[in-house]
Amino acid sequence: ASGKSSRRPHVGRPTSKFRVDTRRVRMSAFAMSAAAPVVAPAKTRGGSRFTSKARAVPVRRAGVRTTATAEAASTDTAASASGTQKFYFCLANADFMLNDENNEHLPEVLRERRRFYREIAREQDFWVVPNPAFLDAMPDVAKKVKQPCVAVVTTDKVWNDFIKLRMDRVYKGALTGDASEVLASKTLIKADHFKPPDPSKWTAPYAKYAPGWWEAFYPGNENA
User: Fold this and answer.
1) Of 30, 91, 115, 168, whose CB is crowded by the most CB atoms within 10 A?
2) pLDDT tens per residue, range 120-169
3) d(CA 149, CA 161)
4) Bigger pLDDT: 115 or 40?
5) CA–CA distance, 209 with 108 (Å, rounded to integer)
6) What is the secondary structure of the chain as a DSSP string?
7) How many CB atoms neighbour CB 39 within 10 A?
8) Are 194 and 104 in contact (CB under 8 A)?
9) Integer Cα distance of 84 and 181 in angstroms
């Protein structure tokens, strides 16, 4: 018993390996704490610039809409008071507009629109005007179009834009005037105006539309 050391091991002192592990754990914890994102406190509604701008935008837009509506109403009132109206048109030479096989969708467009108007009991607002008289006041436009010519005239601006897109090679314009003057023709285009197509050159799988289909859409033939 006397040969053995009476010193007892110090339990509270960790070994070297344990100290290294402890430091690693502490460093990892510190690194995780340092890497954590810092979240800034949210701004109040009163102090937020974004909120302030978002509130201002509807006010300005509402003012623009009000002004535009007022101007449109003023224009419509003035036109109504003077008995005039705004018309829109697409103009092209007669052969291209009425006889070209590439434009055989035009009579279908006009017929379907008329059918739809009759179903909803809406008054017709589009016409085929051959050799329109209003071109006398537009000499620069008249020079651009081969004669005889035809205009599809309407009071619907959106539909006029649609016709322009469908027909493509047409002149699109607008004018204000009395309906009796805008829809007047200098000369009509008869059903037999165009030469019949050569059967040997007609390659479409359907027969060509009957000549004179356009007469049903002359002004005054709304019930045809």
Assistant:
1) 91
2) 999 999 999 999 999 999 999 999 999 999 999 999 999 999 999 999 99
3) 19
4) 115
5) 10
6) -TTS--PPP-TTS--HHHHHHHHHHHHHHHHHHHHSPPPPPPPPTTT-HHHHHHHHHHHHHHHHHHHHHHHHHHHHHHHHHHT-EEEEEEEEEHIIIII-GGGTHHHHHHHHHHHHHHHTT----EEEEESBGGGGG-HHHHHHSPSSEEEEEES-HHHHHHHHHHH-SSEEEEEEE-HHHHT-BSS---TTSSPPPPTTT--SSSPPPPTTGGGGGSTT-TT-
7) 6
8) no
9) 10
**Among candidate residues 213, 113, 217, 103, the one with its CA nearest the CA of residue 169:** 103
* Closest by CA position to 171, among listed 150, 148, 193: 150
Please name every residue paired with 171 in a beta bridge, in sequence order, or none if there are none.
Answer: 91
How many angstroms separate the CA atoms of 165 and 76, rounded?
A: 27
Query: Hunting for tokens 């040997």 — which residue is that?
Result: 200
C-alpha 11 chain-centroid distance: 85
Torsion of CA 158, 162, 167, 173, to 10 degrees: 10
Q: What's CA 107's distance to the chain center, in Å? A: 24
What is this structure's pTM?
0.62
User: What token pair was written down for 211?
Assistant: 């000549």
Tokens describing residue 77: 């009132």
Q: Of the candidates 122, 119, 193, 194, which has an alpha carbon nearest to the alpha carbon of residue 154?
A: 122
Count other C-beta atoms under 10 Å from residue 91's C-beta: 24
Structural tokens at position 95? 């052969």
Six-digit token pair at 208?
Answer: 């060509």
